[in-house]
Amino acid sequence: MSDPRVLILGAPGAGKGTQADRLTAAFDLEHITTGDALRANKDMETEYGTPREFMDAGELVPDPVVNEIVEAAIDDADGFVLDGYPRNESQVEYLEDITELDVVLYLDVAESELIDRLTGRRVCSECGRSYHVKYDPPAKEGVCDECGGELYQRDDDTEETARERIRVYEENTAAVVEHFRETGALVEIDGEQDPESVFEDIEAAVEAHTDAE
Ligand code: AP5
Predict the structure, then answer these.
(1) Would you list the domain boundaries of the chain?
(2) Which CATH class is domain 5-110+163-209?
């Protein structure tokens, strides 16, 4: 029995990271997230500049930088949840050359909800857990429930940059969703439910498309 290879798609703030954390724990998978990998290397010099220059503006980091990160991570993983990649058609081609996927999930959330989710997000500086000031607040303001770490707001979660990220998503990544819809692989999940209900739907979809339980 091989471990599931799951792709999770959705707009910025759709809940990909929240649900990927649950999935990796439930099925003992690697969480491959280009956003986290790039944030950990924001000031890395590449021939295109640093990731920070693109990320803080809400733009995509150039494909060769991201492709390399993903290929290395996939090489090291058996089962995985891939979150934040592919984000354009060229990344889709690259991905399809290096691996096969068992299930492609798409978290469907209306644009009007995304800005609220992004601007209200707070992240633990120690363990990386995400909170939301309204929908999932910590017990003590500014402090992580799980590890006591300090919570911070991501540089790209300002309203202006969040709007630009959603524009970039529509321009580039909406076509990725269409690609997987056309191949018949896409499983659409109502991402506007509470996080537990979203996860129940995701868990059922993964079990239905793989031999994982
Ligand atoms: P990345 O970090 O991947 O950001 P993103 O795709 O914009 O997604 P987010 O992490 O913002 O949102 P999410 O869907 O994970 O939502 P979350 O679960 O946190 O990328 C950042 C940047 O890196 C990009 O802009 C780009 O520059 C670069 N980059 C990354 N990958 C790249 C690539 N492949 N190519 C080129 N460049 C790349 O939830 C959000 C909030 O909502 C949280 O507060 C959470 O608590 C709350 N929430 C979650 N679910 C629910 C729910 N069901 N109900 C209510 N609230 C909820």
Answers:
(1) 5-110+163-209
(2) alpha beta
Q: How far apart are CA 170 and CA 75, in angstroms?
A: 30
> How far is it, in rounded angstroms, from Cα 147 to Cα 199?
23
Among 32, 34, 171, name the best residue to mutate to test ligand 1's pocket (greatest count of ligand atoms within 8 A of Cβ): 34
- Using CA atoms, how far apart are residues 185 and 179, in angstroms rounded to an integer? 9
ipTM: 0.97
CA 168 to ligand 1 center in whole angstroms: 13
Is there a binding annotation on residue 85? yes
Per-residue pLDDT for 162 more than 80? yes
Beta-carbon count within 10 A of 24 CB: 19
Predicted TM-score (pTM) of the model is 0.96
